[in-house]
Amino acid sequence: MIFTQLILAHLLGDFVLQPDSWVRDKENHKLRSRYLYIHVLLHTALSFIFLWDKDLWWVALLNGASHFIIDACKLSFQNIKTKKRWFFADQIMHILVIAGFSFYFGEISINILMNKEWLKIAAAALFLTAPASVFIKILLSSWTPIPDTKDHLQTESLSNAGKYIGYLERLLVFTFIMVNHWEGVGFMVAAKSVFRFSDLAQAKQRKLTEYVLIGTLLSFGLAVLTGILIKQSINLTTI
């Protein structure tokens, strides 16, 4: 499959065979960096090697050319504040180019993308991110504990860490249910309990403990319920 072959070439060229020194030189010198052109030549060569078909030489060349254009745009427009966004945009664009080649050769079709089962799973996964967080926040709004000013417990944390932890835990629970590995759900509950135990023990606030417990159960409950409903829905349509 062209998609798999080009993805392997991409992973090797962008991560395994690209030293940090190349990345730093490209960020410092941008289009004047010789490593940008070495990097593109490496990608083109890897595409040739993995495709291993002389009739597909143009695919390797176009893949290399697109890689240069995308990387050149990233290097030209990114800055310290936007570096992370440009990294993900860069990777998405590379994958879309590879998907375009795969679509051209009939490996990917609109029918696959519009498959009802996949759309249900995608909708459920999307619901378990920001929408589920909003539901949980509203349900807990009347119980949000007021921090005790007498308690000198350090409450500093990473920006939006709790939000993204919630996203990840719900998506993992949903994934475990969809692949029939319920033991993974138990592992997630146990793991979160262990990490939360020390914080709650130090806080010495019963209201905070109850608030966190209710929030955790709501988060896991929504993920489990969504997983069961989607799984049952898919099973009914296949009968």
Automatic annotation (TrEMBL):
InterPro entries: Phage_phiKZ_Orf197. Keywords: Membrane, Transmembrane, Transmembrane helix. It comes from the Bacteria. The chain crosses the membrane at residues 34-52, 86-106, 118-140, 171-191, 211-230. The keyword Membrane applies. This is DUF3307 domain-containing protein.
